[in-house]
Amino acid sequence: MKLHPLKLVTIVVEAVLDTRLRQDLLRLGAKGFTCTKADGEGSRGMRTDDLAGKNLRFETVVSDAVAERILTHLAEQYFPNYAVVAYVQDVSVVRGDKYV
């Protein structure tokens, strides 16, 4: 079985960014993504504001170039004003053509 090296970009954001980030990911080149509800605690403490909602975790498998575009966009548009965590992992996937 042939495996294709790609990048898994994981982004944890405030729920208020749901629609905006979905549109951004597709516009920046992601072919799709998975979004799940997330809860936790970090450097800013636990989020307890029910009005703002929980966090969301987005995961997308993309090429190196798309991963770079996504991270650059997050750094410029989201990091200064929102609680956002983003990281990238090397992954090997079957049917790599689905992601590029």
- Oligomer type: single chain
Query: Which percent range describes the beta-strand content?
Result: 35-45%
Give helix and strand order, one letter per element, not per position. EHEEEEHE
CATH architecture: 2-Layer Sandwich
Radius of gyration in whole Å, from Cα?
Answer: 14 Å
Counting structural domains, the number is 1
Strand order of the largest sheet: 2-5-1-6
Uncertain parts = none
Overall morphology: globular
How helical, in percent, are the residues? 10-25%
Distance between the termini: 19 Å
Features of this protein?
100 residues; alpha+beta; Alpha-Beta Plaits; 4-stranded antiparallel β-sheet; 6 strands; 24% helix
Task: Please describe what this structure looks like.
The protein has about 100 residues and is an alpha+beta fold. The chain has one domain: Alpha-Beta Plaits (2-Layer Sandwich), CATH 3.30.70. Helices cover about 25% and strands about 40% of the residues. It is built from two helices and six strands. The strands form two sheets. The chain has a four-stranded antiparallel sheet with strand order 2-5-1-6, covered by helices on one side. The model has no long low-confidence stretch (mean pLDDT about 90).
Layout of helices and strands, plus pairs?
Elements: E1 4-14, H1 18-27, E2 34-38, E3 41-42, E4 45-46, E5 55-62, H2 64-77, E6 84-93
Antiparallel strand pairs: 1-5, 1-6, 2-5, 3-4
